[in-house]
Amino acid sequence: MKKNLFWKYFLVIVLLIFSLFLRVNSFNSPFERDEGEYSYSAWILKEGLVPYRDAFLQKPPMIIYTYYLGQILSPKGLWPPRLLGLLFTVGSSILLGLIIKKEFNDNRAAILSMFLCSLMLAFPYFMGFSANTETFMLLPFMGVLTLFGYYRSSLKGKYFFWAGVLASLALGYKPICLYALVVIFICWLINLWRINKSLVLIVRSMLLFILGGLIAASIQLIPFEIKGVFGYFWETAVAFNILYSKMWGWGLTNLIRQLELIIKHWWIILPFFGWFFLMKNSRKWFYVILLLSCLLGVYQSPIGHYYLFLMPAMALMVSVGFSNLIKFVENKIPFLLASLILVVFLLAPSIKQFSLTPEEINTWVYGTVNPFSEATLVADKLADITKPDDKVFIAGSEPEILFYAQRKSVSRFVITYPLIMDTPKRLDYQKEAINELKNNPPRAIVYSLREQSGLWNEESPKLFIEFLDSLIAKDYQLVGGYVWEREKGYWEDSLPIENKNFASLLLYSRKD
Fold first, then answer.
1. Quick one: which of 136, 246, 250, 333 has the fewest CB in 10 Å?
2. Measuring CA to CA, how many Å separate 346 from each of 151, 315, 389, 480?
3. What three-state secondary structure class fits 391?
4. Torsion, CA 322, CA 325, CA 329, CA 335, rounded to 10
């Protein structure tokens, strides 16, 4: 008994070290804009302001609380949310191993899946090292799946209650898991009906699941209910998100593009998927349906990190298929050696990362078309020309600058994408942003010239961008800008006009 316990602890420690190895040199990589959005929202919550009302935020509140916890560990640190993301990833990987052990009675596949899941969640082409919502969402989602796997035949209602709590927490990070949660819940109820054809039992289980979810959701929303800003939450995190998802359309173009990335870099896993389908195991079909339901939640998006949601189901299929294939040729290929070869192949797309600095990793993943690596320096310049109580404006979608500089925005539009996205709200939002700048002119303005910052595009109304350019020309002076020459960038004071076209971020100060 003690020997088994020792090996379990040893396995968890090795998994933790392996996961740390995959991510450690990215812990202090500059934030991308989503991380900046969460960091700023958590910071203003500490400062007495309220996200959703004082900062436009599309995500439910669990990510704010997670970053808030990170800022308790280190108020301005980059590493705390990444460390928390690492711990969540390890937890998700362990739960996946437990599920495989229970569902497929395969200890070797269970252990392999834990390492594959952690590795696949670090896929650099899906921004795997960033502390994004998908990373945190997976742990409570996997908790629901674990309860289903272990207790789907139990008649005790407490498992439905706790599944409801965990489902609410998962949705509180990101609602892309909704379809998959519905699939799990329906399969659970069907299984209960087969065991005990009692309508009372089914209704009781449903009510307990709903009760757990409502209690958890109410606790998440308490700070916003108390401050009377629930309407803002509904507008940005629910209504606008629906418009946002519709904007991408219903085609398969984005999904195909992301799947091509997986096949290009991880072609080696394809035979193991095939072997998984060839297995004579009735439980496999549930996980096929689960993977399809996960795809349904993300297929519209062109953004890579959405597809991290697929990784646990993929790791399950690959691990179980791999283990069964090795059993078929047991006398020829040792399982441990074959597993190491598989891990090495899956690590190949990430090898470059380990020779890069945190700043270089950011540029490698996001390129210079996003002004992430220079945002820290520009934030220092912004802090130098303003006082802590001064309010500023980021003309673009780079709220990480606000967090780095510890300066509040004059506008709730800390990202300008809502002003240009093709939704019925964009013209109203442009008018609102104009009024905010008129009523409270910022002490300084950071102006992004990068197209991916979402300050302007050719298709959207020009009302806001024309007002902003006019305001700057009339009342502001150029302090300097961050200039790029090929792959190298630098700050330049009093930027000459000929260098302005090579700049990514410009800093303006209000004239006295």
1. 250
2. 33, 11, 49, 44
3. strand
4. 20
Cα 81 to Cα 132: distance, rounded to the nearest angstrom:
9
487 burial via Cβ count (<10 Å: 0-12, 13-18, 19+): exposed
CB 32 within 8 Å of CB 127: yes
As a residue count, the chain comes to 512
Q: Note the pLDDT tens digit of each residue in 331-388.
A: 667 888 899 999 999 999 889 899 999 999 999 999 888 999 999 999 999 999 999 9
Q: Residue 400 is which amino acid?
A: E
Amino acid letter, residue 210: I
pLDDT higher than threshold 80 for residue 107: yes
Reported as a single tens digit per residue, the pLDDT across 25-49 is: 999 999 999 999 999 999 999 999 9
Q: What is the DSSP string of 122-142?
A: T-GGGTTTS--HHHHHHHHHH
Strand 408-409 with 503-510, pairing: unpaired
What's the pLDDT score for residue 334? 85
Distance CA 88, CA 111 (A): 17
Say if CB 437 and CB 411 are below 8 A apart: yes
Degrees, nearest 5: CA angle 169-171-172: 60
Q: Is 156 helix (H, G, I), strand (E, B) or coil?
A: coil
CA–CA dist 492, 482 (Å, integer): 6
pTM surpassing 0.90? Answer: yes
Q: HEC profile for 342-377?
A: HHHHHHHHHHHHHHCCHHHHHHHHHCCCCCCCCHHH
Domain ranges of the chain: 2-354, 375-510
Angle between helices 2-23 and 107-120 (to 10 degrees): 20
Q: Which tokens belong to 411?
A: 């506008």
Q: How far apart are CA 403 and CA 8, in angstroms?
A: 40
Residue % of the chain over a pLDDT of 70: 99
